[in-house]
Amino acid sequence: MGWLLILLLLIFIIPAAIYFRMPRPCQKPITFRIGKIDERFGLNRQEFRTAVNMAADLWGKPFSRDLFREDLEGVIEVNLVYDYRQEATDKLRKLHFKIDRSKDSYEELKTRLENLKIEYEQKNTLLAADFNATNARTIAFNTEVESWNRSGGVSESIPSRLMKEKNELNTLRDHLQGRQEEMKRLADTINSLVIVINEIASDYNLDLVEHQNTGNQLGPEFCEGYYENKNGRQNITIYQFDNYDRLVHVLAHEFGHALGLGHSHNEDAVMYRLIKPNVLELAPDDVSALKGRCNIN
Questions:
Q1: What is the C-alpha to C-alpha distance for residues 215 and 213, in angstroms, rounded to an integer?
Q2: What is the pLDDT of residue 284?
Q3: What residues contact 190, with CB distance under 8 A and at least 6 apart?
Q4: How would residue 23 be classed by pLDDT, with cut points 50, 70 and 90?
Q5: Does the pTM of the predicted model rise above 0.85?
Q6: What is the pLDDT of residue 219?
Q7: HSE of 227 in the Cβ direction (CA atoms, 13 Å)?
Q8: Mean pLDDT, the chain, as a whole number?
Q9: Contact 239/228 with Cβ under 8 angstroms?
Q10: How many angstroms separate the Cα of 295 from the Cα of each of 3, 18, 164, 281, 284?
Q11: For the sheet containing 68-70, what is the strand order?
Q12: Is the pLDDT of residue 59 over 90?
């Protein structure tokens, strides 16, 4: 019985001691460090570092103390990663597509998508027919050349006609290759449109656009930034950069998750699920949630 009592005491006392020795939320600043920054965003390391610190400082202002602190050995690594999401947006902007991530933008882009799909199908049908016609002429040309070679000779007029046909076929193939490249660019634009439309759709719980080229790349919900705590490692990863205010807001939102805060139902809150770039200070809901998390009255 004595050993059993000691064992029970160890089971309850040791975890309790560990719990009370662990730093409570907000007792001391959570450290972070700047990680990878992809130069394709057009931001240098100092510019990104300034945005990260602005976002981190936002959370300490209501309490006049730091809840986050930059450190070379910081526990949270903050990264700016360029992937297919930003690439799709950049491609469309180069083609002068207006992208402001609003519901109106969603409807406008969907209309342009449907028009491009129709254009693609029409051009693809014509291209396939022209490819078949050119292939048929090529087969006929090769068959005739082989026939004359087997016969052992041709009249003087035949080589001239065959040479003309050969040159025309080469010109046709070059033209078809150019049209094929145009189709690839058109398909790429369509795929980029689907990605951006689905980003906006995810923000507003609108219908996602299905398209075989994109598959399930976006997952259940697109996010411009993501906080992850996995296997003892913490990361904040930003995937898109539209403008500086929006970047600071996304970073602040992810730092909120790092503090253990969930999403708010208040549209003016930093922790609201959708990103509103004009929100660069904590709303009362954010402060209330933070007080509850930090046990501050």
A1: 6
A2: 93
A3: 113, 116, 117, 120, 211, 213
A4: very low
A5: no
A6: 37
A7: 18
A8: 81
A9: no
A10: 39, 19, 87, 21, 16
A11: 68-70, 30-37, 76-80, 233-238, 225-230
A12: yes
Euclidean distance between CA atoms 278 and 65, whole angstroms: 24
The CA–CA distances, whole Å, from 20 to 7, 16, 29, 67, 236 equal: 20, 6, 18, 20, 28
Place of tokens 């539209």: 242
- Provide the strand spans (E) within 231-268: 233-238
> Quick one: pLDDT band at residue 229, thresholds 50, 70, 90?
very high
Distance CA 262, CA 223 (A): 15
Beta partners for 32? Answer: 70, 76
For 97-151, give the DSSP string. -----SHHHHHHHHHHHHHHHHHHHHHHHHHHHHHHHHHHHHHHHHHHHHHHHHH
Amino acid at 217: Q
Per-residue pLDDT band at 212 (split at 50, 70, 90): low
* Encoded amino acid at 269, one letter: A
Token pair for 110: 């969907």
Q: Is the pLDDT confidence value at 203 over 80? A: no
